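B., you asked whether I could sanity-check this one before it goes into the benchmark set. Here's the sequence:
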Amino acid sequence: RPGVPVVELAPHLNYEILGDCSANTGQHRRSVWLYRRAAGVRRLAVASGAGSGSGSGLGSVAGTGALSGILDGDLSASVAVAEAAAERACRMAGLSTTAALDATEANLRLKEARALSALGSLIEASNVLADSVPPTSPFRTYAHSMLLGEIYLTSDRNGEAASAYLDAIRRNAYCLEAVEMLSILGSDQSDVLNAIEEGVQHRSEKAKQSGREQQEGGRDSDAHAALDASVQTVHALLPLKEIATALFLAKKNNVAAALETYRELGVKFPNNAYLLRKVATLQISTSDDVGAEATFRNIRQIDEHGMDGLDLYAQLLQRRGAIPELG
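And here's what the prediction gave me:
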């Protein structure tokens, strides 16, 4: 419309958005090609020094003609063009032709691997992640490691799955899903606790680095806040070890000890829906349906819109014949 400014997206974003749309509508094969196309364009931008991807050197590869080709269904040809151009640019710049060159490309590879996994191409999905964001990559996140763990677990590669979940915890100590999976896999509890400690220290170091960068930028108040956060981080995350201990106790069928641990944590962190759901699940396992119902009612008061655990609550109500409450 006249007078409305036109915002020009970085070329890779066109393909990423189309890939997201395809993935969300179940067109996973199409989304794989689109994410690969986006990654190729992004690699070319980084390798050629364009940075934001808006440089003129990208015109022949990322122009509207290539986009039209994708919309018309000519996926393989346009992807091949982008990948070949990116590989040439990387070789000329002395950069890796496989590892992700920045966080944007790393995220695109994560989406590509998810789409491949949805297609059942588990080996190809794991290879994409292993090649583009190896453990030494500065752009690898806990999300990459979690997806690798899920892929390995589905492929019955339990040892590799455990390693991936431990890596996820080291990158994000709050990754309780990984802790739960490791307890199910029967991993050594001390390895999990050590990974949590590494995750705590990693978080603390990132806060310190942020504080130093802000201090160098002249933002002293922000810097002091970040540095204070780095000191408080360790204390704030210590309960995670207790949660991990409770999870392992429950998997070893030491339900009484696990319940006691969760309840002690509940005193320190009242009205915590996650802890209460764990208590309710253990109450169900010990046939304490009355206690479990009371716990779920408490959860509903805290978060009436939360869906986690509602299936278990519904089963309890159905067993009791509480049809009005079930509705």
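One thing to flag: The CA atoms of residues 293 and 313 lie 7 Å apart. Otherwise nothing jumped out at me.
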